Amino acid sequence: MERLPHWELTEVISRLGHQVRNPLATIQSSIQLVQLLTRPEGEVADYLVGALQEVARIDRLLRDLQRLVRLAPGSPIRAGIRDLVERAVARCPTPAAAVRLEGPDLIEVQLAVDLLQVALDELLQRATTVTPAGYDVVIRWGGDESGPIWVEVDDGGPADPSGSLRPILRTWPGSGLGPFLAERACTLLGGHLEWEAVQPRGHRFRIVLQRG
Q: What is the pTM of this model?
């Protein structure tokens, strides 16, 4: 079967999102109205809360799917890695774990900054979600003048020593499309995304980029 051109796939997913989100909004409003009028308790209340959470999850999935197909190379801008990392930390919801930054101030890149921010946001969101209080999320970066630049995000969540992505996908917050968004953004930047289990717990995700 011949694959759809990218622009057609983007249009299909855009229409799909529109067609599904409209009834989702109706379902959400109906559940909230039932909650308001009946003031349910016990199992019924829990069921309605769970239903709202599922509506939100499906909505997030559709939005992330649209984001995924719309990612595209952008105009390169020179920026410092530390500044980009600090912006990502500032955008992240307040985590239970502390976020520690380790890297020099002077490393700069020239690339599509928006794409790197997508990758950083997704990796940091996962790390701060799965890392419990008492453990640090560590973001470090480096690279020499002639080689690639790298940015690592270490979390303190449960580690899978097999190195398989499947257990990681099960613990990814939100829609679960985060690793695909991060990997696609890295690919469009001319780089790639690596991951590995680290001991005694957690995973390390590494963004590897060619120096612009």
A: 0.79
